[in-house]
Here is the input.
Amino acid sequence: MWIRAEVLRLTNVRASQMRKAGVPGPEGSIGKMASADLNKDIYEFVVDMMGLDGQLYGSYEMIRPEIAMGFDSFQKAFLRARANSIEGGTTEVMKNILGERVLGLPGDVRVDREVPWSQVPRN
Ligand SMILES: Cc1cc2nc3c(=O)[nH]c(=O)nc-3n(C[C@H](O)[C@H](O)[C@H](O)COP(=O)(O)OP(=O)(O)OC[C@H]3O[C@@H](n4cnc5c(N)ncnc54)[C@H](O)[C@@H]3O)c2cc1C
Here is the structure.
């Protein structure tokens, strides 16, 4: 996990320098996808290390955090990390972007490609 975190940090540094040079690349999508998985794995490891304590939630009382995204326990941070691969673009969508736009792989079959949004079937 340390190696993954370090590779991610260096990728983010590279992405930042490319952006400053005016040539943003796919590193943003890579970083979003990799950080979501890494964050989930880190907190899973943390609650595993806590043993049975890792299953305790503390209190369900609503407490306003002192800082944005601040957590008063590892257990809460673990639960919040589950959202990382959904929010801001799911990991599956990130993989599609990287596969199709970066690697140039053939796209998914999209039967609704030419269909106006108002006519796309929904459940
Ligand atoms: C904790 C949390 C905080 C959020 N905060 C914000 C916020 O501050 N601002 C904001 O605007 N939004 C926010 N969101 C919304 C978030 O951006 C969306 O939930 C997210 O983009 C996924 O969209 P969706 O829920 O409509 O899922 P859908 O797009 O309906 O996806 C459902 C499932 O289908 C899969 N899927 C969808 N399309 C494809 C595809 N083309 N290829 C392969 N698989 C696909 C997805 O991976 C997923 O598993 C937040 C969501 C969460 C969970």
